[in-house]
Amino acid sequence: MKINIKATGIELTPAISSYVEKKLSVLEKFIDNPDVVAQVEVGKTTQHHKAGNIFRAEVHIIGAGRDIYAVSDQEDLYAAIDIVKDDIVGNIVHLKGKHETISRRSAQMMKNFMKGLSDGFRKFRKR
């Protein structure tokens, strides 16, 4: 998995970059395709808030039939990165479970279909 990091409104320091890569390295456990690209954007949302800074972290995973997105706005940049990592992992796990459920349902339908065919042949032979 390839990680592209972009900073808006702030300077992308090596500390921020390594923190993002460290946090998103967990995703490789769920996504084993090297063609998948994780586009990460960190930065300030605006320059004119009345009190304090509001930081934003976005992750958009594209490739291998996936299109997953998560965003977080927090007063601390590192907290925003942590929350967006948890959200994106939750989305990936949800989609994986949904895919497995669909696969199991289709396999069960095929099993019932084949079972119905064999029952039909039994009835046909008894005549």
Characterization of the model:
The chain contains 2 helices and 4 strands, in the order βαβββα. α1 packs parallel to α2. The model has no long low-confidence stretch (mean pLDDT about 85). A 4-stranded mixed sheet has the order 1-2-3-4, covered by helices on one side. Helices cover about 50% and strands about 25% of the residues. The chain is elongated. It has one domain (about 1-100): Double Stranded RNA Binding Domain, CATH 3.30.160. By secondary structure, the protein is an alpha+beta fold. The protein has helices at about 15-25, 75-125; strands spanning about 1-10, 35-45, 55-65, 65-75.
List the total number of helices.
2
> In the CATH hierarchy, what is the class?
Alpha Beta
- CATH fold name, please? Double Stranded RNA Binding Domain
Calculate the terminal CA-CA distance, rounded to whole Å. 61 Å
Structural class: alpha+beta
List segments where confidence is low: pLDDT < 50 over at least 5 consecutive residues.
none
- Helix/strand order, N-terminal first: EHEEEH
Summary?
48% of the residues lie in helices and 26% in strands. With 127 residues, it is an alpha+beta fold. Helix 1 (14-24) links the parallel strand 1 (2-8) and strand 2.
